[in-house]
Structures are given as structure tokens and as C-alpha cells.
Amino acid sequence: MFKYVHHVHYIVRDLDEMVKYLEKNFGHRPDHQANYGDHDIKAIYGVGKTTIEISQPLDPDSNQGKVLAAKGPGIYHVAWAVDNIRQVAEDLAARGNDLGGGDGVKDSPHGYHTVNIDPDSSLGVWFQLAEGESRARHQGEGRQMGVFQYVQQVEYNVKNRDEMVAYIERNFGMKPDALEENVRGEWVEAQYCIEETLLRIREPVPGTGTAKRFIEKYGPGVRLVAWGTTYNIADVAKKLKANGNILKDKQRGFHQSSQGTEQIDIDPESSLGVLFQIIERPR
User: Fold this and answer.
1) Is residue 96 classed exposed, middle or buried when 0-12, 13-18 and 19+ CB atoms within 10 A define those classes?
2) Alpha helices in 114-188 (DSSP H)
3) Using one digit for the tens of pLDDT, what is the confidence trace for 249-268?
4) Are 214 and 223 contacting, i.e. CB atoms less than 8 angstroms apart?
5) Strands across the sheet with 40-47, in order?
6) For a disulfide at 176, which of 93, 190, 202, 210, Cβ 3.0-4.6 Å?
């Protein structure tokens, strides 16, 4: 059912500073910026098929404002592209999912349609589905080519992998491409290949590790989105270090990912509180 990552929505404390950070470090400039009154201000970027939405909440009592206060800057949600969204919504409601009233389909001010599944229906994870292109992003030829070129992976941390696998198959008709057991002694994982994107569903096992710490602090949900690039990863790391970013690998600035490709992890203290991960496209 999932076709590709439709958009990734980040929330930040200072939109202007994040816009400057993305251009200075990754060469991305916004396609569009908008002010939604007292609710939020937003910058829109196009990255391949995917749109990046970055919001600065202006109303502390809004859902975005509350999430920012509770969790800090980071990913607000990930939306997955689907076809025939009204039929999808009807089918999801018939299976007992709470879609927030009505037929569950909402209209975005940017021209696409969304369905939001209440996390109480989906094992604590917020799934958003979307159909239609965003009018706020540039289309076709002439798009700038920054470091981010496609969504390489999306990681959800959950309390029970097998229950989430069953939920995804029942509601979205997708079976995992792989099941991994006891990865590094920290988690079990289900993997789904969705175009160029690897969707990873991780359940922490007893002990310590990033998945366990995330679940304990924030509950189930999206932990990170990794951006794929064709740029030389050593050159990207060199520029990031020159700009004052703190990278996980203190020597080279990059290290080998679990998939055998090279990746960069930027300390959120360097990137205005947001976790950015860049992975080199396999050659």
C-alpha cells in the first residue's frame, strides 16, 4: 500500500535558524515559506518525490507546540503516499481504526489529502497517509540538488514488533521483507522495502540501547529519518566538521552503517536539536 515517503514534518524552535543551517550545511533552500497566523510558520523543501515540512509552532497550546515542549525539536510525523485515499480511509475505519471523525480524509492547504490514524488504534504509533502533490514545492526540471536526495530509511520504535507486523499486514496489506532477531543485542526488527526507502520497525530487547531509551522517554513512534545521498560522504563530513558540527565518528566523521554503506550522524547539539543522519547511496 505504501508507495513512498510523501513528506517528513519536523518541528523546531527557530525556523529562520534552521533554514540557514540547512542551506549552509546541505545546500538546500526552501521552495516556499508561509505564515499561518498565530498557529505556525513553515518552510517547504522538495527532495526527490518527498517533501520536507519544517514548522515553528507559534501557539504553545497547539498540538505542535505541546509536542515541541515535551520532546524538543525533531520529527513531528512521517506521511506515506497511497492511492485512492478515500477508499483506504473507508477500509481502515471498517477495520476499527479511529480516523478522527467524518470520513477521515482531510484537505491540506498545499493541495494534497491526508488520513491520520489515532495512535490508540495503531499500537501507539501515529501513521499518516497522503495522496496528491504539494503545490508548495517546485516541480520538474531546475530543482536544486542538495545533499539530501531521497529518504534512505525510516525507523519506528515500538513496544512489540510482532504485533506491529500483524497490524501493518491487516491494515496496509504489507508483509515484511525481512525479520531480524537480537540485532547487536539491543532490538528485534522487521524490515520493509518501499521503493528506495527501508522501513524499519524496532522493538528493544531487555538491556540498554537507543531503541529502549527512546521508548522509555517518548513512547512508540518515529525515531529517525535517514537521508540518502550520492555525494562523496567524506566530502560531506569534511564540510560539516568545518562548519562546526559535532559528528559521531570523531576521526573521519563517518562510519559504516548496518547495511554496509557509509553514514554520518550529526550530534543534535550541532543541528538545533534535530537528529540528522546521512547515508551514502550504495555504489
Assistant:
1) exposed
2) 161-172
3) 999 999 987 778 899 999 99
4) yes
5) 32-35, 40-47, 50-57, 5-11, 74-81, 127-131, 113-117, 105-107
6) 190
Sign of CA dihedral 159, 160, 166, 172: positive
List where CATH 3.10.180.10 sits in the chain.
5-131, 150-280
CATH superfamily of 150-280: 2,3-Dihydroxybiphenyl 1,2-Dioxygenase, domain 1 (3.10.180.10)
Provide the mean pLDDT of the chain: 93
What is the structure's pLDDT at 143? 57
Q: Cβ–Cβ contacts within 10 Å for residue 217, how many?
A: 8
Do residues 5 and 260 make contact, with C-beta atoms less than 8 angstroms apart?
A: no
- Distances in Å between the alpha carbon of 260 and those of 109, 267, 282? 40, 21, 8
Containing 216, the helix (H) or strand (E) segment is helix 210-218
Backbone angles phi, psi at 91, to 5 degrees: -65, -40
